[in-house]
Fold this sequence. Notes:
Layout: H1 9-24, H2 28-40, H3 42-72, H4 75-98, H5 100-113, H6 123-135, H7 138-147, H8 158-186, H9 188-193, H10 197-225
Amino acid sequence: MLNGLLPGWPLLIGFVLASITLIAIPGPSIMFEIGRTLSHGRKAGLLTVVFNVLGTTVWLVAVVLGLGAFLESNPAALAAIRIAGALYLGYLGVQSIRHRKGDEAALLAKEQAAGADQKRLSGRRIARDAFLVGASNPKVAIFFSAVLPQFISPDGNFIAQFISLGLLFQVLAYMGDGSYVMVASVARDWIFSRSGRLATIIGTGGVLITGLAIYLVVSTALELAH
């Protein structure tokens, strides 16, 4: 597809679904973005999203420069990375299910503290903090190094596909995190008015990502068997 810049449609669709599932599960970045939105408003939340995703780009560049060429020339290592990535997805899914009530409680605490935290932050402070949170997010580091390579077609240019899929993930992250911020800014009363609503959302995401992990392990095992 596109002269080797992207994998074929089955891999590309699978990558988009995997990315959306991973992005949808609240992690360090989303928790931080929602907290900023509840405390400082929609504008601060959206600015936080922009610089948080820019911060995660550090991992994309690092993986491309340090890991891409190695994986391109070592099929066995690539297979091992694919299995590790699938197992990590399963871990994230199970953790989301197990800790869904705790994550809900943490966000509820942020929402309750919002009224007491009205100190206005400068755009530079918001951008700096968001970039650092993104650059230190281990979930993104594992995704780029262990999950993304599973969706690269051996028929195309490895590095070009890696970069293209990485940038696509960034676009999806902008959209997904931005959606959380918008919902937090306009529907926080509904989300927090009844205990268990947010926990259900988090738990459902955990079930989906666990199912995705099982699929990736099985598909990789079948591919290696052939």
